[in-house]
Every structure is written in C-alpha cells, then in structure tokens.
Specification:
about 190 residues; mainly alpha; two-stranded antiparallel ribbon; about 50% helix
C-alpha cells in the first residue's frame, strides 16, 4: 500500500509496503500521474504502530494524528477510523486554542485520552487474550467471533461501536444455559 500527499510542488508524506513489486507499482503510479521524479524519491517502509500510542502526540501548536500519533488499532491494525477521528480531535483542539495556540497540544491530548485511548486499551486487552492462545487456536477463535457477530465486528472496526462492546456481548453469550443473553448496543 502506498500514499503520496502533494504539498505545493513537493511531497509531504509517502508510504509503501516492503516488497519490490509493490515499490515498483508505487513508482509507476507516481510516474503515471506525473507526481514526481520517481527515481529521486527515497521510498521507505515502516511498521504500523500497533497500540503504541503517544500519550502527548504533539507540542504546543504542532499535533500528530493517525499513525504518527500511534493510534492504529492494536487488535487488527486498522487505522483509517482512528486517523480520521484523531484528525477531528486535532482540528477541534486547534479551533479551541485560537486565542492561545500553545495550548493546542494539551487540549488534543485531553481529547485523545477521553475518546480514543480507552478504546485502544480495550482493543489491546482483546489482542492480549486472543494472541495468548496457542497459534493453532487464535485464527479459529477469530473466525468464530466473526461468524457469530459479523455486524458487531464490522461496526467496531468502523468506529460505530466500542471495543468494550465485546466484553458486554461475550459475557452473556458465555453464560450458562437457561439465561437469555442481553446484547447491549454498545454505541
């Protein structure tokens, strides 16, 4: 996967997977769209920051969002929802700090701690539970989870439900027979 972001006549950010075939495809994409001298651009790959979010992703009026802030989902690695949501929180902090720009990072940090960080902690806990299983079991467990609750899984990945929902949904589902599970909307 790759991305190129045009800023005036240069590129602010580029990302690419680690295979030669993908890199060649990315260079072809850039050349096809006349975006840059494809041989002059150094292309590097970096790991997705699974669950290693920065507690304070910024300083004064410089804010980091998305992968730069480390807000990729630690369970599945999904990052689009958290990139958009952290961007919203950053924009909100900038607007709220108009009269005192140096306060933007603190406002943004508070928003992340309130909205995104708790979700990442729940996702990380789920990851620890699933991936603590023997290797031969965690894919079957994930498959069963996706088959039993496909809508809940999809909505969680899209940010429409919280990761806390899995605790609330799984607990009644695991209760003894005779108890009817109560599924919380977890929104």
């Amino acid at each position: 996967m790759g991305a190129a972001v045009r800023v005036v006549d240069s590129f602010a950010q580029k990302g690419i997977g680690h295979s030669r075939r993908i890199r060649a495809g990315f260079r072809n994409f850039l050349a096809y769209h006349d975006l840059a001298d494809t041989n002059a651009l150094p292309i590097r790959a970096h790991a997705i920051p699974y669950g290693n979010y920065l507690d304070t992703p910024g300083n004064a009026n410089v804010l980091l969002a998305g992968d730069a802030a480390g807000v990729a989902d630690p369970f599945l690695g999904e990052g689009i929802y958290y990139a958009h949501r952290s961007g919203q929180l950053a924009a909100q902090a900038v607007i709220e700090s108009r009269s005192k720009p140096e306060s933007a990072a603190g406002l943004y940090r508070d928003g992340l701690r309130r909205v995104i960080h708790p979700e990442l902690r729940y996702a990380h806990a789920g990851r620890q539970i699933i991936f603590a299983l023997p290797t031969s079991l965690y894919y079957p467990v994930l498959t069963v989870l996706l088959r039993l609750m496909p809508k809940v899984c999809e909505e969680t990945i899209q940010g429409q439900r919280t990761f806390r929902c899995f605790r609330r949904v799984a607990t009644p589902a695991l209760s003894p027979r005779g108890h009817s599970p109560v599924v919380s909307p977890c929104r």
